[in-house]
Records
---
Amino acid sequence: MARAGRRVAVFEAEDTLGGGVRSAELTLPGFLHDVCSSVHPLVPGSPFFRQLPLGEHGLEMIHPPYPLAHPFDDGSAVLVSRSLDETAAGLGVDEDAYRKLLRPIVDGWGDLEDALLAPLVAAPKHPVALARFGLRAIRSAAGLARARFETDRARALLGGCAAHSMVPLEQSPTGAFGVVLLASAHLFGWPFPRGGAQKIADAMLSLLARLGGSAYPGEAVDSVDDLDSETVLCDVVPRELARIAGRRLPARYAAALRRFPHGPGAFKVDFALDGPIPWKAPECAQAGTVHLGGTLDEIAESERAPWQGRHAQRPFVLLAQHSRFDETRAPAGKHTAWTYCHVPNGSAVDMTARIEAQIERFAPGFRELVLGRSVMGPAVLESHNRNLVGGDLNAGAATFWRLIARPAPRPVPYRTPAEGVYLCSASTPPGGGVHGMCGYLAGRAALRDAL
Ligand SMILES: Cc1cc2nc3c(=O)[nH]c(=O)nc-3n(C[C@H](O)[C@H](O)[C@H](O)COP(=O)(O)OP(=O)(O)OC[C@H]3O[C@@H](n4cnc5c(N)ncnc54)[C@H](O)[C@@H]3O)c2cc1C
């Protein structure tokens, strides 16, 4: 909006700006942790972010030698490289199958990204490319992995990537999630900002200031009527939109917003460590992100559990080890680890011991390195950011239907029935993740309406 010459003011309820892209010394002095998001393939991968000169505003993305490692109990690991061929070569008899699944998506990304990073209901610019992608990938991750791959290793790799959706791996379109995330590793890498996720928000705020905009932390919006503006873009979850704009919305739409379903929550633990994580599979040390969950069956069980109100005994744990590649994150010789697993929405169960047991399983001796930990269950996460309802980091379940009707079935999901009021959070397409596309597409809709 500011780039289009509009006067922009950002009102943020919390005392620090950034929402899901903030960093803080959560454990001990000198240890810098990401409060929410931590690994950012869709910063280089976002058509919106690619237009912004964020490098001029202090953003430097670090690419670890390998985006991802997935270790197994036998002390081996699958490594995902920037190179699709190198990754395929590490998969043994599944080498060709991996290439066949990923190559068309990586090579055809130019035609696909407009459709995948936008509302699924919009008329795609390249319907043939989208249809081919659909035939290849829009099915359950468990089904896709078993149909395409023979080995446990390749199946587990796809399952781990699909588990980012927080949807049971037996459901469609989790296969597409997994494939797109793997493709993003080959296309863009899985980098993170030097100095913490906060640097993304800081760079955007610096650019906004240069364009004449301003930001006000500690200013919760309780009613859009309080804002002196003809156009209001709301980076809020649907039930919050109903609260702050309800008076201007038709009752049916407001009721749909209140009913909008949230998915499982995140249970997050950050560690300050006395040394690097002692991986049984040494190649894990080269990867920025490590998926701890063993086989596809184990990961599938872990992802099913929260939907059934259960807590997995051996949860699938997502781990990032920034300090190995970014010296600003910890004092010399010390390290950090960022981890979380999925739990039922709003769960109050402490998963710390189960997360630590999963790390210890693949890195014996880990526990002895722990100098400090920060534990954030769903309630604490929500207290840091009201968009994380019950710990749901996707701002709404990412089921097939809720990717289409996000937040409600409407031709332009960003435009609410109230004139001048738009929804621009991850509760709109394309959904969760740090890519800026929800805001970008909402902004474009608002600018079109203002013409
Ligand atoms: C633990 C965790 C790990 C994650 N890991 C990753 C990752 O590695 N990579 C990735 O890409 N994504 C990750 N995500 C997801 C990512 O952070 C979100 O999808 C993304 O931040 C959503 O952006 P958003 O603008 O919709 O909302 P947010 O970033 O949540 O911002 C919304 C802002 O609006 C403010 N707000 C809400 N209501 C009001 C109000 N009434 N008045 C004023 N202000 C209000 C909130 O305080 C918040 O600051 C993670 C999230 C969590 C919680």
---
Amino acid sequence: MKTRITDLFGIEHPIIQGGMHFVGFAEMAAAVSEAGGLGIITGLTQGSPENLAKEIARCRQMTTRPFGVNLTFLPALTPPDYPGYIKAIIEGGVKIVETAGNNPQKWLPALKEAGIKVIHKCTSVRHSLKAESIGCDAVSVDGFECGGHPGEDDVPNFILLPRAAEELKIPFVASGGMADGRSLVAALSLGADGMNMGTRFMATREAPIHDNVKQALVAASELDTRLIMRPLRNTERVLKNAAVDRLLDKEKQLGSAIKFQDIVAEVGGVYPRIMKKGEMDAGAWSCGMVAGLIHDVPTVKELIDRIMREADEIIASRLTRMAKAA
Ligand SMILES: Cc1cc2nc3c(=O)[nH]c(=O)nc-3n(C[C@H](O)[C@H](O)[C@H](O)COP(=O)(O)O)c2cc1C
């Protein structure tokens, strides 16, 4: 399949693996890139620019194909060493960066000068247009269904994607709720040039996370996610568990007076315990509604090949037959 996204990133299939905290290690990114998609290492998960440099080098040993690095710009009292991370990306020869969170404008000149293509993750049309206007090469449009931070507008992809298509000139991928060939064909129909998946890629053999997490995704239905931190305007879609129930109780009791400190036990530094040790109730972890469409744990290559085969069948057989019959 050839789209503006496969052309832009020099990849075989228009499928991107979005940055994921404590999932986006070299094993994950390399498996996706080797299978013809675009794998992405999660920058901040590495803990320091030095470690990111090592992770980039490790990924390069595992694949000769293009891969990217995610840089998430979060509001923080003591911000991470972003200049250091950017230096590691540039010196590591990475040519694709997925930015997310705050406006990446400040960091674009350095990235552009190094010939790096930037895809910014956005949850609204207005942020997508802003990304286009500051010189991003593409956007990843993240609908309300998505795992992680869906923003505060609550517009699902059936509306958000065609709205993005109406306004954007640069290519974009559909993100949030994407799982299979049906998702890909739908995303293309709605105006996207490919798709980005997070949650679905966690339930793969190569995902470097504890098997308990993969099994939780297979067991979960589309009804099992919850939105947390709404009162803090930092909404996150997570899988329901004991910690999330406790957190939501606190939100109910404290109302608009709630502060981050009140929920730090449920959200602060919990990822390693969940992803590495498989302690499923240790805290809140991002998960999309798409969990309802995850029924197995294939290899990344099996997953991507299946998606492309299914998409081809839908386009060449199902849709063509319907169009001809009309
Ligand atoms: C466990 C997990 C961790 C994530 N961590 C990040 C992150 O650190 N930075 C980021 O930009 N997006 C992060 N995301 C969002 C994904 O990159 C992607 O946009 C999202 O998962 C798409 O929705 P889906 O899960 O329905 O496929 C995370 C998602 C998950 C499931």
